[in-house]
Amino acid sequence: MTDPTSLSFDARATLPVVVHETPEWFVVNKPIGWHSVAARVTDGSATIQEWISEMFASQRELPECGLVHRLDLSTSGCLLVAKTLRAHEDLRENFSSGVGGWAIGKRYLALVANGLEPTGEFTLFFSSRHKGSAKVTVSEFGGRNERGSCTWKVVRARDSRSAADEPRAFDLIEVELIGAGRRHQIRAGLSSLGHPLAGDAMYRGLPLRESANHNCAALHAWKLIVTGVEIVSPPPTWA
3.30.365.10, 3.40.50.720, 3.40.640.10, 3.30.2350.10: which CATH number matches 11-232? Predict the structure, then answer.
């Protein structure tokens, strides 16, 4: 299994971009290969938290420079950032509950092993990581705080004429993450159903050619819907 911190490309060559801004919050388009927050395991690698700190001095007073949620190293797309402590608290609470009249919508794009039903959903339980690994365990039963739900629809079916490692050799799906989201919920959940993400070696995904996504799992945080405002991160080339 490839060490997720050992990238085959210079992640800093592609910088984050602010794609939408309001007086209370903004959304950053995160490139793949960037960690969300600084931690011991990031070991000097590029992080969105440090980029925000460098670009916006006013954000330094907020927890994690205002980041409301996180994305995996290999996941690109929309990251929500609060500008005030009140907004940070309110938006994080909304992400945790995921219910109510102004629930934040979270839509992803992913490439998966073909054969998934055209539409579907799962509710599964995501527990502690395997010893010595970032991998999570998926079960049909578990505690309330481990519960995670998703719905999906296939938006482009596999082209059987494509080479096995090309993006079109996989089904392209749109996934809605319901509620707060658990660690690796989409990746581990779909793998447990027998449809792992392309390029996701951790969860037994089939290889995706490096030029398509730098040997990373094909997952993109495509849309956020906040207080009725829809923010879109441009889809990657594989989509």
Answer: 3.30.2350.10
